[in-house]
Design goal:
The chain is an alpha/beta fold. Among the domains are: 193 residues, no CATH class; 111 residues, no CATH class; 158 residues, P-loop containing nucleotide triphosphate hydrolases (Rossmann fold), CATH 3.40.50. It is 48% helix and 16% strand. The chain is built from 26 helices and 24 strands. Bound molecules: adenosine-5'-triphosphate. The site of adenosine-5'-triphosphate has 24 residues, from α4 and α6.
């Protein structure tokens, strides 16, 4: 059927026109409301009644809320005006006679008089029928109730610039048509929203119980990042009343990645959420400079074999991320806690105001929900209050005591006049002295009492535990042997001399910071999304959970891409059992990014990994086989690369990346391109804190390419070859799974990409 020959096409054009008109009207009316609210705000500010401020403030804040909501409504409607909806369903509820016709879009719009929905938000419960339901008998849940009925139509719309281009009815056979088209499109170096084509398995994750953590092991290109972002959007929609977007946080692997996902969040109606990296987050929590050894340095050294004592360095990296280290720190913290309990009772002058035992109880038990140093502050506050109230009573008592004595001397005791005089003077002096002492000490007693506790900064504690062999041994002797303890302390000692930390240390730093000093309120997110979570360590996840005091995490990752597995996670079940016992664990096996031909080759590399992961199933989309070009010298290699880039552009590829194995290799590739490339194509050597320039051919190393995607990828090996060890296999797998459409390999022999392990006929050799 031709594009516009659908029998309902005209009717749908009319519906679209109506919807747009209605939106215009609502926008206009809301803009008028906006003016009124603004005027009200101005008037209530001018006429603020200082005597009756509570009522005025109440009015003002109500008005401000209305203004904010109206502005948001206007913003949302304007945003979707050119594409108000993308799908429709016809649903006959059981027991009803008239079908509901519902249009789904990225925001909702209701008829202002009847409250009937004109557009239904894709995140509303009933939208499940579109994503989940086949035609026929279906049901959906809303607010704990299950609604059943019959779904007779699922229709998709292609609307561009506010004009209806095409409509498609989705039945059992054609469900994937729009998905196919959307995947066949071009990558813009930017992640996009997928609300129109969210698949059933993805929808389940987006809408999985929002009150529980979720762990997703997803194949390369299965939509993990995309889904995690859609889940945030769904969360904010569902809990709009309880959560502000600022209370949500995304932890991304680097700033390049944050830039890569930055377009999709506003598209999904989520823009004020905290987006950061683990490194920046921990720095923010500590509030100090943390000088890190460049995180990729160790990986590069592992790869090029330049590490001394690699086995022990590997051990130390994984130990720093283990929950055993957390146990050791816990033991140490118990002693730290004892060390901050002031010794002895609290006195004001010679009067005991509070027993040491009670102070200890406050610190160890009563305030155990607070960081240690906050507990001390609290004790300070308690003692100050006591001083404030007790001081008056004490002064009165002292006054009375000496006045009684004086009176006795003057009127009751039989003393000779000289003695009496001296007695009275002494008593008066003593009284003055004591009262003055009480007055004076009342200002200093608390400070003096707490001063006995030696205070230190975070690094002191970190160093004390990790660089002193005797201290570490005290807490770790049943976990580590002497050789390990000595190695650990020496290793940390060297880092301390350089005043540096490793990325692996972030877990301990955050954990100690949380227990000793606490994390700033604005950084205590209530819901967290972690992407590329396979690169985190168990302890990092544990420390984050403790510091944030919530287990509301969405954790997505792929063990097959765990290039930092020497320090990261190897087993999601351990994460679930030991850190997030309430979590739901789920897997995504389908890849939406890559063509069947490319995925077949990547799957062969995956099979070489010592991991128990099933093959990735590409969504059926065919392309050309990956091609291998053999070169004899560097100049020839560049020539071949340039010719391929030209072909790729001719074939309509928009974003192209050349991926080198390591950072060093990609620097070399950039040099070769500028030496022999005659400036035919602009290249951009990608670094961590850069934005991708879409027009340029991007040169990037495999580790940094993780998470990104391009229309076409050229793997180019000059000096560096991929070998069969686990890290390098993972790097190769990551690199091979970046393209949407085309993969070309350049090397001086097929074995540099381990192609001898790839089944015959899967790669074309030139
Ligand atoms: N349901 C879908 N409809 C359309 N496109 C989709 C769908 N799911 C995923 N995609 C696309 O597939 C590509 C891969 O998605 P994404 O980057 O989220 O995957 P990932 O699992 O995070 O990948 P990786 O682990 O390799 O980084 C993106 O271009 C995304 O837009």
């Amino acid at each position: 059927m031709g594009k516009r020959q659908h029998p309902d096409f005209q009717e749908e054009v009319e519906r679209l026109t109506f919807t747009k008109k209605y939106m215009e009207m609502v926008i206009q009316a809301s803009e008028l409301d906006e003016e009124t609210f603004k005027k009200n705000a101005k008037e209530s500010l001018e006429g603020i009644d200082l005597k009756d401020s509570s009522l005025s403030y109440l009015n003002m804040s109500m008005n401000a809320n209305l203004l904010q909501r109206t502005q948001e409504e206007i913003r949302n409607l304007k945003k979707i005006y050119n594409k108000p909806y993308f799908a429709r369903i016809n649903f006959l509820r059981d027991g009803k006679e008239v079908e509901e016709i519902l249009y789904f879009g990225k925001a909702s719009l209701f008829d202002r008089e009847t409250q009937d929905p004109i557009i239904v938000d894709w995140r509303s419960p009933i939208a499940n029928l579109y994503y989940d339901g086949r035609l026929g008998e279906v049901n959906y849940e809303a607010e704990g109730e299950c609604y059943e009925g019959n779904l007779s139509l699922k229709r998709q719309y292609i609307i561009e610039d506010g004009e209806l281009q095409e409509i498609r009815d989705v039945d059992l056979t054609t469900t994937d048509e729009l998905l196919q088209e959307s995947l066949a499109g071009s990558s813009s170096n930017r992640l996009t929203d997928i609300v129109t084509t969210i698949q059933e398995e993805q929808n389940r994750i987006i809408r999985a119980d929002l009150n529980k953590p979720i762990i997703v092991q997803g194949a390369a290109g299965s939509g993990k990042t995309t889904i995690a972002l859609h889940r945030i959007s769904y969360f904010i929609y569902t809990y709009a009343e309880q959560f502000r977007p600022e209370q949500l946080m995304i932890l991304a692997p680097n700033n390049l990645f944050i830039d890569y996902i930055s377009d999709v969040l506003p598209e999904l109606g989520v823009d004020r959420i905290l987006q950061t990296t683990l490194i920046d987050y921990v720095k923010g929590c500590i509030g100090k400079k943390v000088q890190l050894v460049p995180p990729s340095e160790k990986l590069s050294k592992f790869i090029d074999g330049s590490l001394n004592n690699a086995e022990m360095v590997q051990w130390i990296s994984s130990f720093k991320g283990s929950l055993e280290l957390k146990d050791i720190i816990n033991r140490y913290l118990e002693d730290v806690l004892q060390s901050i309990v002031p010794r002895g009772d609290f006195y004001l002058s010679k009067f005991k105001l509070y027993s040491g035992e009670r102070v200890e109880k406050l610190i160890v038990e009563q305030y155990n929900y607070l960081p240690y140093y906050r507990r001390l502050e609290k004790v300070g506050e308690v003692l100050k209050n006591i001083v404030r109230t007790e001081k008056k009573i004490l002064l009165q008592k002292v006054d009375k005591f000496y006045e009684d004595k004086i009176e006795e001397a003057l009127f009751k005791l039989k003393l000779d006049p000289a003695k009496r005089k001296s007695y009275v003077t002494k008593a008066m002096d003593k009284k003055d002295e004591l009262m003055e002492e009480i007055q004076k000490e009342s200002r200093t007693a608390v400070r003096a009492y707490l001063k006995q506790v030696a205070k230190h900064d975070l690094y002191h504690y970190f160093d004390e535990l990790f660089t002193s062999r005797s201290v570490l041994k005290k807490y770790a002797s049943d976990i580590l042997d002497d050789y390990q303890i000595n190695f650990f302390c020496d290793y940390q000692g060297k880092l301390r001399t350089k005043r540096k930390f490793e990325v692996e240390d972030l877990a301990s730093l955050l954990y100690l910071q949380h227990h000793l000093f606490g994390v700033p309120k604005e950084l205590r997110a209530r819901n967290v999304v972690i992407d590329e979570a396979q690169d985190y360590s168990y302890f990092q996840l544990y420390a984050l959970k403790s510091a944030l005091n919530t287990d509301m995490f969405t954790i997505v990752g792929d063990l097959a891409q765990g290039i930092h597995s020497y320090r990261g996670i190897n087993d999601w079940h351990l994460v679930k059992e030991e850190i997030f016992p309430r979590a739901t664990y789920t897997t995504l096996q389908k890849s939406y990014r890559t063509t069947v031909e490319i995925m077949q080759v990547a799957n062969e590399v995956l099979a070489l990994l010592p991991l128990d992961l099933p093959k990735v199933e590409p969504v059926v989309r065919h392309g050309t086989r990956p091609v291998f070009y053999e070169w004899a010298n560097e100049a020839e290699a560049v020539e071949l690369v340039l010719a391929e880039i030209s072909r790729l552009y001719d074939d309509g590829m928009k974003t192209i990346a050349i991926i080198g194995k390591t950072e060093k290799e990609s620097v070399k590739l950039e040099k070769l391109m500028s030496k022999y490339g005659n400036g035919v194509y602009n290249t951009q050597l990608l670094r961590e804190n850069e934005e991708i320039n879409q027009e340029d051919v991007v040169i990037v190393h495999s580790q940094l390419a993780k998470g990104l995607e391009f229309d076409a990828v050229l793997l180019w090996s000059v000096d560096e070859v991929y070998s069969l060890n686990e890290i390098e296999l993972k790097l190769l797998y990551v690199a091979m799974t970046r393209p949407l459409h085309r993969l070309t390999l350049f090397g001086h022999s097929p074995s540099v990409f381990l192609l001898e392990h790839v089944g015959e006929g899967l790669v074309e050799y030139k």
